[in-house]
Amino acid sequence: MSRLALHFCAWSERWFPDAWVFSVSAVLIVCVAALAIGATPAATTKAFGDGAWSLIPFTMQVCYVLIGGHVVALSPPVSRLIEKLAAQPKTGPGAVGLVAMTCMMLSLLHWALGFVAAGLLVRALARRHDLAMDYRAASAAGYLGLGAVWALGLSSTAAQFQANAASMSPELLAITGVIPFTQTIFLWQSLLMTVVIVAMSWLIATRSAPAVAQTAAQLGIDVSLPQPAAARVLRPGERPEHSPWLNWALALLGLAWLWGEFAARGFVAGIANLNTYNFLFLVIGLLLQGTPRRFLDAVTHSVPSTAGIMIQFPLYAGIAMVLTAAKAPDGATIASHLSSFFASIATRESFPAVIGLYSATLGFFVPSGGGKWLIEAPYVMQAATELKVHLGWSVMIYNAAEALPNLINPLFMLPLLGIVKLKVRDIVGYTFLQFIIHLPVVLLLLWALGLTLDYVPPQYPTNLPEGLKP
């Protein structure tokens, strides 16, 4: 396994372009497709331009998911916990397995928290002179949360999106209705699939760790802890920044609001709201960081990792609008053509495997959980409705399949690589090995578990205009 992983590393270094190239290519392909079905150039360009800025609130919500994860993971209490964890493994493969399991467990709670904490754990393990751990394999294991299971957990963008009527366009809401977490990530089928994927990922990570380890020192990477700043006398204007009372007061206000939200809506329904979810992690970050200065420094550290989301989500939103709004003279759209195509080639039984394979393929061109769901949801969910496939499981088909291309697409690797100071080519061989084993197993799970679920009609919010209901 380790030799195969190293071979994949060399191949990927030569042939993989940047994620921005994938996104722009997808825009051009969709616009050409709109023209091919009969949409006018004016209608196509208008749809793209109108759509590009239609999801700014959602884009900011996803950015705050990443910021909140960073702030919590970089706090002193969590940092101390990471150092204690790093003292546990006795062997190099055991250390790689610890990184993999830690990353995946945390990613089920918060996808950004998972890879940030894993990156810091890799560096802590690398500081141990008595441990022969391969730094590249451990860093790749720190990416398994995003590459394998994050979309099956609480921060699943698609599940969050479908659980909130306010997040969806009226057209999509009319197709799917509101799908609560109990019909997506909390299905027993979803939980079983998660357990299988976690166990498989951990086993591959430990078995593919090279027998002859390349340590961080051998790779020329400095993993030493930064030296604390020298003590100095604070100016009066600086003192509030280094006092915890402002953080405590703001956190208390936030906790009071959260208490009211959870009391009124219940924890599951409350946490399904992205605003509530992000607010919770920011409040936890305020408390764990202690002082305003540490909190702001952690936020500053996290913001650069949101650049890909900020610049690419408008492209994804534009693609979604072209798919659904650029109409041919007969009223047909790309989305309607695609839904008819999938409904024609798939049966109720084969739908999970067909859509899973398609979603994984599209992920190479649109490497984003939230952005890609905006593109796929209109026609995938329409096809699911026509074939009477369980709508919540259709979301989970997407969730499990969309994580697969993350294992070999560099976009979401970049924040982790910034922590461990490696390049894509250093870890993608190991993640590609995960990919070629995950693909058939995940498709099989989606098909087999989907057979155990019956179709449930859409649940519409009370304020949905009657004319939008099918």
Task: Provide a descriptive summary of the structure in words.
The chain is mainly α and 470 residues long. The chain has one domain. The chain is 68% helix and 0% strand. It has helices at 2-15, 19-36, 41-52, 56-73, 76-86, 92-109, 111-126, 135-141, 144-149, 157-163, 170-176, 188-207, 245-265, 267-271, 274-289, 292-302, 307-325, 334-345, 351-362, 369-387, 391-406, 413-420, 424-450. Helix 2 (19-36) packs parallel to helix 17 (307-325) and helix 6 (92-109) runs antiparallel to helix 12. The protein starts with a helix and ends in a 20-residue tail after the last helix.
Topology (SSEs and partners):
Elements (H helix, E strand, L loop, with lengths): L1 H14 L3 H18 L4 H12 L3 H18 L2 H11 L5 H18 L1 H16 L8 H7 L2 H6 L7 H7 L6 H7 L11 H20 L37 H21 L1 H5 L2 H16 L2 H11 L4 H19 L8 H12 L5 H12 L6 H19 L3 H16 L6 H8 L3 H27 L20
Give me some keywords for this one.
23 helices, 470 residues, single chain
Number of domains: 1
Mean of the pLDDT scores? 85
User: What is the ordering of alpha helices and beta strands?
Assistant: HHHHHHHHHHHHHHHHHHHHHHH
Separation of termini? 51 Å
Pick out the low-confidence regions: none
- Overall, the morphology is globular
| Radius of gyration based on Cα positions | 23 Å
Q: Largest sheet at a glance?
A: none
Strand-pairing-aware structural class: mainly alpha
